[in-house]
Amino acid sequence: MTFPFRKTLLSATVSLAALxxxxxxxxxxxxxxxxxxxxxxxxxxxxxxxxxxxxxxLIFDRLVTQAADLSYHxxxxxSWEEAPDGMAWTFHLKQGVKFHNGEAFTADTxxxxxxxxxxxxxxxxxxxxxxxxVEVVDDHTVKFVMxxxxxxxxxxxxxxxxNVIEPKSYTELGDNYGVTEVYGTGPYxxxxxxxxxxxxxxxxxxxxxxxxxxxxKGPAKIAKLTFREIAEDSTAFLxxxxxxxxxxxxxxxDLLSEVQKEANLAILTKPGMDVYYMPINVTKAxxxxxxxxxxxxxxxxxxxxxxxxxxxxxxxxxxFLISALPESHVSxxxxxxxxxxxxxxxxDEAGWAMGADGxxxxxxxxxxxxLWTQSDSVFRRLTEVVQAQLKAVGIEAEITTxxxxxxxxxxxxxxxxxxxxxxxxxxxDIVDWFFGGDRLGYPNVSMFNDPKAxxxxxxxxxxxxxxxxxxxxxxxxxxxxxxQFPMAPIYQPVTNVAxxxxxxxxxxxxxxxxxxxxxxxxxxxxx
Length: 527
Prior knowledge:
This protein is of the alpha+beta class. The chain is built from 16 helices and 25 strands. The radius of gyration is 25 Å and the shape is globular.
């Protein structure tokens, strides 16, 4: 027998419970805007990508992680030992770890992953190049037999490019892996991905093996994350201000004061891993003349840019590496500083005479060059200042602006003369990445292929038996590259993250070098 009153009351109770559950679910969602230098990543395939974004590190895990002080700590590897001669590494793996598709993570997974990584035609394959073979000791112990010592191995294993993939699905999906589907062991699963627009991740409720430096080992506290790609910083800020998004992973210096005016917004500042610089195409006249390259490089007034474009936040760059790296400590004579007297003298020596209109000329041809940049506001403003500084020594630069998501493809044509761009990386191997002779166009935007540099590059990448030797070799390589002026360093920012304090509780302290997986494991959304 049914009692109508009880049925109605039960229905009302269920409806109320569903409503409350729906509100709670909504409260456990967060919308994040990716940094502008992450806009346009075409895939979540860490092996083949040349560009990855913050969401990538939430889909996958790595064997090793770094703390805020850049020291190395366990993740999927609970511990490890290096042989005294550097010719072997043994990793002891966490047990009970599963990929998003249910496959178990074992020593055999690591063996297959490394073999796939090494066999790929990817730009990233160099990270595993020194691993000669992988031996499965038991289900949860794996040994890397090395072809040579690799002092940088732990750094490589902590890189997002060495996220651990699930080998079976990687092989089956082929080029669709990372685009239509992707499977890692990370705290979040891919729900949807629209290139250049947004990525939606949902929590991996089975996750219980977070990195040792995170307070929360899993599952993550936020159920759903939407990462939006907004190339214009001012548009992203307006979205944050009006509540359309909860967190910006990058805030340019000129917007900091605007963020600080809002009572419900806060800024988290981390040491920067970026360098803004002006690549100079050494194969395109007039920059095939080193005197003209040096003149252009020393026309850049870094101090003026720091003050006028970035409001004094951050620091100048006078080498290609972030100043926190020991390999940035080159001789003073190799550092690139503003020197207009030297610039003018070099251009005079190279036969470029100053004209009445302020533009130099040689053999009846004006010193006019192209200056490429990307569409977001910081780059446009910075490029306009660079243009004016070049004009001050008689170089007329015409600015061409490309969409931020498309400019890398343009670099591959090799038609650029000058450009303004930035990179994010905290290891000296970025010198190899952007100036290696086998990577012309992109990432080697400078088209730099110098025999002596290649010798020094080989020694830096493969010739060190320990970290002290590696630092020495990379410092020599870096220093020589600077003396050939394939680029002009400009600026080192700090990383500013802005978030809505009515919505987001940020972990404090954040024991990580950036706002990545550790932050999102410990981050909470207010209900």
